[in-house]
Amino acid sequence: METTLERENDSTLKVTVSATADEVAPAVERAVRKLGSEVKVPGFRKGKVPRKVLESRVGRDALREAALREAIPEILAKALDEQEDVAPIAPPAVEVTSYDLDGALAFDATVEVRPDIELPNFELLSVERPDAAATDEEVEQQLQRLQERFATLETVERPARAGDYVLCDIHGTIHGQEIDVLSGADQLYEVGSAWPVPEFDTEIEGSRAGDILKFNAVLPAEAEGEHAGDEVTFQVLVKETRQKILPGLDDEFAKNASEFETLDELRVDLRERIGKVKAIQVDADVRNRLLEQLLEEVEFTPPESLVRSEMAYRLQRFDEQLKQAGMTFDQYMESQEFTEEQVEQDLRRQAERNVRAQLILEDIGRREGLQVSEDELREEVRYHAESMRADPSELAKQLSEGGRLMALAGDIIRRKALNLLVEKADIKEEARDEQAEEAGSPALEEDGGTPDA
Predict the structure, then answer these.
(1) What is the value of pTM for the model shown?
(2) How far apart are CA 269 and CA 254, in angstroms?
């Protein structure tokens, strides 16, 4: 058997194989036996049909195709075994260039393999780590959110304005038929929320108790439910306008809104918690920056089969998200003014980036000898079970039966590889704006505190 290899790109090899008639003969014999056991010939038991009788029964071409199905996988596997570091990652595409039954066989196979990746010196990678400390503005924003949570509503006699809440009866109809999801008595509507259409705010702002409003509006295409894009007639009876009253930011508020006795103590707690959340976000940001830098420095063509598989996975996820939002793919493209080609191009770009990142991290894992212990795999299953509200042992069984445990192990390896990058790379703290800090320092001393998200 003669074999030649030609690299077409980073992840594709063209393998040309020539096998002698003697090397192909065992496959022909197997093909005859299999066909003989499948074809019923009067006067012969299954599996005992002579070849000449079988050939006259099914035809020479059918026997040739059966022989090729038997011969090519076996011969290609032997040919690849003779080569070093050639491990197909997808079924090869085969083109038979020469074969006559009982003669020699020649074929070309396009084989996708893991690309050879030239990794840089990790210590030369350098990124800045953003400051994770909470700012005074973030603390105050969090306090404002707490104020909103503890706000009260007070009835007022003036016309409704943005930020008020209007108690009203709402009737939404299409061709005289009331739509339940757009109707209801004693609804508390926030002026400015634009539900379910912006015209609602235009009509209700400036209204008073006792007013009856009637108007038509078209539901947006991205609205949930079957009536998206339909014109709806709304009739609204305004019963009462209520103004939102925010509690004062003082020690009494701190006692009601938290376990702290003073506002300063609450600010300190918020600052610490915001800092912890930002630190997690910053860690993720550092990892992403390093990975992006690595992707820019390491050039290779990812295997097309892996890219197509990733695209199919992303398209399925995207379709599920659209269904949850009550939209079809066509409605999404229309609302975003995208073409199908643009969506496909974006999916391909994301898929290629993700496949390249996975291959780089897996290559780092292999070169560094990273392993996954049973305890780590068990913890990974437990984590996924909790997020899915499933039984860990049952999920482990399902993953094992579906051959997905190795995929989880791969996730762990890639995380470890990324952690290794962070350990070895040059991580510099992002320079702080000292003038801004000095400007904010009196407020810090005054407040004595900090927030969290």
Answers:
(1) 0.69
(2) 11
